[in-house]
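Priority: medium. Attachment 1 of 2:
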């Protein structure tokens, strides 16, 4: 099982609940694009090592079509909006195939 500690990526942390009882109920946020990524484990197989960028999509169905495993995530982003300050949770990120 993967460690549930957040991954610090630049100034965002792609963390989200995972497991069979998780459903995605997003709070309304303005977004223009969807980042798709895949987390991977480091050498100690119990910890998340980082994430791989899969693609950037202009609508949710396109992003979802790229999520083949429970390690793929979707993170909405707003075009031309900077994330500033300390690392923080990525609003709206989720793992659609985690069930």
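Attachment 2 of 2:
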């Amino acid at each position: 099982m993967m460690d549930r500690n957040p991954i610090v990526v630049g100034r965002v942390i792609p963390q989200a609940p995972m497991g069979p009882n998780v459903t995605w109920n997003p709070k309304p946020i303005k977004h223009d694009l969807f980042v798709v990524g895949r987390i991977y484990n480091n050498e100690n197989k119990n910890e998340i090592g980082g994430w791989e960028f899969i693609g950037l999509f202009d609508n949710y169905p396109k992003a979802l079509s790229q999520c083949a495993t429970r390690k793929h995530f979707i993170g909405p982003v707003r075009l031309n909006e900077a994330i500033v300050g300390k690392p923080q949770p990525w609003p709206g990120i989720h793992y659609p195939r985690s069930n």
